[in-house]
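It is worth pausing here to work through a concrete case rather than discussing structure prediction in the abstract. The textbook approach is simple: state the sequence, then state the predicted structure, then interpret. We follow exactly that order.
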Amino acid sequence: DQNPLLDTGKYVVEYYDGSTDVLAANTIAEAIFSQVDDEGRDFLLLDEIVEHEKNSDEALNDSNCWEIKKNGNKILKPTTKGWRFRVRWKDGTHCWLPLKDLKESNPLEVIQYASGHQLLKEPAFAWWVPRFQSAKQRIIKKLGTTKYWRIQEKLGIKVPRTIEQAYALDRQNGNTLWQDAIKKEMH
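Step two, the predicted structure:
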């Protein structure tokens, strides 16, 4: 079969840090496919935020960051203008990104960096970080009570969590139903 997700061969993989591991070919293929979309664009994985820049002409300050609502309430203006961050990707490349993009793709890393560099009181962070942190806490609380990861069967059918488990279930059941479903999904 030409589908790399169905290849069960094993390969020795060397990581950036020099360590090695033996991985199944379909596991490697899954990792590659998970980083490329349907149009062949690759996804960059953030390694670290290296530095930041604040353009004082564009960024809000304490005197112009407030908006007065019709009911008289004062709220922070929701803007990230004037801030950009230099990031290093896992592939070793660097680039500058505006805060508006980085906070959407990597909010936890932005908050951690901003916290370590005493930026959380800046208007560009003060309006969204508390909201994000409280939403994060609600999600974590819900995850703690869910049984999603404990589900092993659905309607009396064992549900595999990995391709290897799917193949094992096919062998156990003497059929190729999971393999067929995987092939169908990949074509």
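Step three, interpretation. Helices lie at 25-33, 99-105, 107-116, 123-126, 129-145, 163-173, 177-186. The chain has a mean pLDDT of 83.
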